[in-house]
């Protein structure tokens, strides 16, 4: 491989590991065959687990371990949420309550878009993950042969208050905004009061950045609520691996519950097969053209 | 300022410039007052130009110049598109045609979401820009007192073929997917045919990365079209500053034309005032709490 050669040329030590489906011994994946051939260590993609759920498997853990992420705390959070999401009382079961409210919002009130909007850049990519979770789990044909799905929109505060909130506040009444609020961030840097001669800067002086984030979030949701714009806020005490595990596992359960209401299979993704079938022949033609 | 002190402590040369509204001499902005006080060079945010359009002003050009972006080519592309977008014949006016088709798609066919999906990571942030352009320009109350707007969704190929296309292909029939296709990229790296013993890798060997991108895009749109899923493709000959200027300016004209059809003002953003009014008092309370 090109990368391998570059590392060798520069005498940089490296180790290759493969993360791949290990379930079928008779028809091994390409990556597994290469791993056997080259004596690479392998990690497993559990059979039947879609990419959107694989953050809770070795697929996610390999990367997590490399960056020193607290996997055990993350799993403890997921396990704690797993128990809560099996409560029969809907008011003790956050995923069931969330799924039911969003399903009613969609089917009864036409709120068929969900804006997922944590506040704080550290949670930016959580929105991207949720986009895939909601799209692939629910965006499909239901058992009544009607297309279901709520379209996820990734957002992050405060940035998207400038980019998107105009439309959330005054556009069509077809959205639910899902806020994620971190009550206390680990580091609450305080804005220095260095320019108190300017009234507009003085207003921010000596206020913590995290307090400003939460003030902005509260203002955003109050503004939406004041005009019948549906929104929901999930608040975690602080941001750590435990609470991140809770938030993510709760949403996995929530799409599962909603899939039952909507009559779709949350765990397949047949829609992507349509373009996949078209790619093969096109690639073959491109190869022919290139080689002729 | 903290940053200034850090630079001085390390003997790093620096220059501060301010980009701010210079229109009101009697009530200068905070940044302008600071610039006068500190003898900073200033660049202008033209009065009344919203953030989404400001890429075509000094706001965009300051950053562009710093990274060595070809501003003149960009403006030449915008100017060329500006002429085309004033053609009376709709088939010679790409913005008018695009706006009309999307308006009809929305009002007649319920396609009230627009997925903006260029192929190629280099165009990833173009989607983020378009999200703001469409949200803020059209997501508002119309002159018939009905909320208008089409909700933009940022996407990029091929990544979001995994994350989002399931829902585009099988979810509700309420979307238009806007593809941006680059016919020939400047560098068309060819995939080396190093593992031809594996059939699935051999299929990609000796094919250019750009060809693979465009094959994936074509497969995606054909798959959508095969099931009455609305989509449109804009193709540029290559990606350079001229064509980028064309694409972006065309979409500015398009939201303007659509604003006329829909009866909204494309150039204001009254919806963001709602949360802004709520932030001030909350900040004041936070300051009181902090200081008491």
TrEMBL record, chains A, B:
A Pfam family of this chain: PGI
GO cellular component: cytosol
Keyword line: Gluconeogenesis, Glycolysis, Isomerase
Species the sequence originates in: Veillonella dispar ATCC 17748
EC code(s) of this entry: 5.3.1.9
Pathway info: Carbohydrate degradation; glycolysis; D-glyceraldehyde 3-phosphate and glycerone phosphate from D-glucose: step 2/4
Substrates-to-products reaction catalysed: alpha-D-glucose 6-phosphate = beta-D-fructose 6-phosphate
Protein name per UniProt: Glucose-6-phosphate isomerase
UniProt family annotation: Belongs to the GPI family.
InterPro entries on file: G6P_Isomerase, SIS_dom_sf, SIS_PGI_2
One term of GO molecular function: carbohydrate derivative binding
GO biological process, alphabetically ordered: gluconeogenesis; glucose 6-phosphate metabolic process; glycolytic process
């Amino acid at each position: 491989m090109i990368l391998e050669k570059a590392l060798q040329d520069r005498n940089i030590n490296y180790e290759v590991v493969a993360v791949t489906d290990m379930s079928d011994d008779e028809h091994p994946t390409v990556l597994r065959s290469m791993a056997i051939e080259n004596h690479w260590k392998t990690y497993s993609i559990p059979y039947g687990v879609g990419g959107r759920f694989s953050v809770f498997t070795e697929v996610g853990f390999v990367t997590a371990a490399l960056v020193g992420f607290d996997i055990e705390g993350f799993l403890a959070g997921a396990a704690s949420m797993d128990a809560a999401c099996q409560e029969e009382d809907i008011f003790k079961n956050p995923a069931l309550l969330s799924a039911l409210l969003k399903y009613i919002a969609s089917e009864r009130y036409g709120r068929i878009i969900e804006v997922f909007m944590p506040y704080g850049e550290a949670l930016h990519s959580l929105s991207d993950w949720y986009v895939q979770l909601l799209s692939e789990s629910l965006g499909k044909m239901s058992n009544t042969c009607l297309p279901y799905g709520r379209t996820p929109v990734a957002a992050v505060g405060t940035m998207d208050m400038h980019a998107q909130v105009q439309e959330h506040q005054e556009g069509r009444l077809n959205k639910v905004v899902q806020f994620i609020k971190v009550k206390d961030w680990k580091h609450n840097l305080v804005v220095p009061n260095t320019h108190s001669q300017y009234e507009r800067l003085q207003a921010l002086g000596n206020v913590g950045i995290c307090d400003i984030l939460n003030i902005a979030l509260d203002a955003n949701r109050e503004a939406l609520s004041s005009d019948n714009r549906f929104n929901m806020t999930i608040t975690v005490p602080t941001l750590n691996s435990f609470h991140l595990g809770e938030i993510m596992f709760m949403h996995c359960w929530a799409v599962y519950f909603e899939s039952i209401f909507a009559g779709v299979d949350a765990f397949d993704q047949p829609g992507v097969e349509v373009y996949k079938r078209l790619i093969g022949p096109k690639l073959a033609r491109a190869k022919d053209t290139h080689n002729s």
